[in-house]
Amino acid sequence: MRIGELSERTGTPRRLLRYYEEQGLIHAERCANGYRSYDPRTEDRVHQIRGLLDAGLPTRVIKQLL
Q1: How confident is the model at residue 48 (pLDDT cuts 50, 70, 90)?
Q2: What is the CB neighbour count within 10 angstroms for residue 21?
Q3: pLDDT class for 38, splitting at 50, 70, 90?
Q4: What topology is assigned to 3-65 in CATH?
Q5: What is 1-59 written as a DSSP string?
Q6: What is the pLDDT confidence band of residue 55, given thresholds at 50, 70 and 90?
């Protein structure tokens, strides 16, 4: 799925999804046109990340947990 669809499904802004990718929390394949393509399982992972962030964990700790 593309970043817009992932954003809609998770309620997470695209900018924040790009940040998660930069931090190594999620991974996207790049299509020939340069667009990001996410595995459908990434939706669950984003929900996990959001929950852990809401619990007060920093991204570096979340990366170790996942």
Answers
A1: very high
A2: 16
A3: very high
A4: Multidrug-efflux Transporter Regulator; Chain: A; Domain 2 (1.10.1660)
A5: --HHHHHHHHT--HHHHHHHHHTTSS--EE-TTS-EE--TTHHHHHHHHHHHHHTT--H
A6: very high
Query: Residue 33 and residue 63: Cα distance in Å, rounded?
Result: 29
Write out pLDDT tens, residues 1-30.
Answer: 999 999 999 999 999 999 999 999 999 999
Dist. CA 33–CA 13, nearest whole Å: 22
Length of the chain: 66
Residue type, 16: L
